[in-house]
Amino acid sequence: MRFRTVTVSLTIGLLAAFTASAPVMAQAFASEPLFEETGTATVIDGDHLSINNRTIGLWGIDAPLPIQPCIKGGKEFACGRDAKLSLQKLVEGQTVVCKEERDTQNLRRRMLRWARCTVGDLDLSAEQARLGMAIALSDQSQDYVAQEQEAKTAKVGIWSADEFENPSEWEFRMKTE
């Protein structure tokens, strides 16, 4: 019984220490200077790339993971793979410039590295949303809502599907099933 009491006490103590330090860690992160990366990008998926060994999430959008399917005409198609290939076409052989943005509202995304990335004057998040390869993260930014609506109206990319699941919800469901 004593062992159980000690274990519970230690667990509660560790949780309290971590919970108390989380705001400090977030504050330290928030005070770091914003990064800017320029170079050739390696595409990870439809909304993440790597430049100079730094993984960067494209600001304001969420694309399906490469293994996420959509359904059209009763058949699955690889909309996540299509999103990744679309981003690869946009950056292939190009110099990509990424300027960090901070998500201070969403606790889950606060510690991730997000950036507005461009190839010349082309905003990669805007283009992925316009092509229907990603949804706008309207709780993070309103910047790409119009492009998402344009893609929905044109029924392109993920919006051409009869069945499409929000990428974050799909990922969560896959982790919990």
Annotate the secondary structure layout.
Blueprint: H1 2-31, E1 36-39, E2 41-45, E3 48-51, E4 54-58, E5 61-62, E6 70-72, E7 75-77, H2 79-91, E8 96-101, E9 114-119, E10 122-123, H3 124-130, E11 135-136, H4 145-154, H5 167-176
Parallel strand pairs: 4-9
Antiparallel strand pairs: 1-8, 2-3, 3-4, 5-11, 6-7, 8-9, 9-10
Can you tell me about this structure?
The protein is an alpha+beta fold. The protein has two domains: 1-32; 34-176, OB fold (Dihydrolipoamide Acetyltransferase, E2P). The chain contains five helices and eleven strands; from the N terminus they run αβββββββαβββαβαα. It has helices at 2-31, 79-91, 124-130, 145-154, 167-176; strands at 36-39, 41-45, 48-51, 54-58, 61-62, 70-72, 75-77, 96-101, 114-119, 122-123, 135-136. Strands 1, 2, 3, 4, 8, 9 and 10 form a seven-stranded mixed beta sheet that branches. Helix 3 (124-130) packs parallel to helix 4 (145-154). The chain is globular, with a radius of gyration of 19 Å.
